[in-house]
Amino acid sequence: MTIANVSQGSTGGLPQALRTAQEAIHFPEVQEMLRRLSEYKLGIFMPHMHDEQTGEFQPLPDEVMQVESGLEVSFQPTHEIANQTDRFLPVGWFWRAGASAPSAVCEMIWEEGQGDTERNGKHKMLKEN
């Protein structure tokens, strides 16, 4: 098995919240959480977005969700996405107000499967020209 180790030597230039996240991944307790999450095929990610003019990293605000659709990522208001469970599959979560809450989703296309209640989900892809 190949393990990729992509590591940036400096967190300079990142906002403090994101520097904290980058540093925390090396803490033994976070490594233990990651090991336990891996038993469920889950991982850890640093929720963020980028300034549209400069490209600089920014923390992902609570009212914004990362949305992947057609192999492109955008950032949309959480309230517009949160209740569309038939359209979006959560793939990333935050802990907010004492509960887990989606922070990243993929747009899905559902196809009827065999039987009356079975549906198969596929990731929404780019439309072919």
If you had to describe this structure to a student in words, what would you say it looks like?
This protein is of the alpha+beta class. It is built from 3 helices and 7 strands. The strands form 2 sheets. Strands 3, 4, 5, 6 and 7 form a 5-stranded mixed beta sheet that branches. Strands 1-2 form a two-stranded antiparallel sheet.
What is the average per-residue confidence, as pLDDT, rounded to a whole number?
A: 85
Q: Any idea what the shape is?
A: globular
Largest sheet: 5 strands, mixed
Radius of gyration computed on alpha carbons? 17 Å
Based on secondary structure, the structural category is alpha+beta
Tally of contiguous helical segments: 3
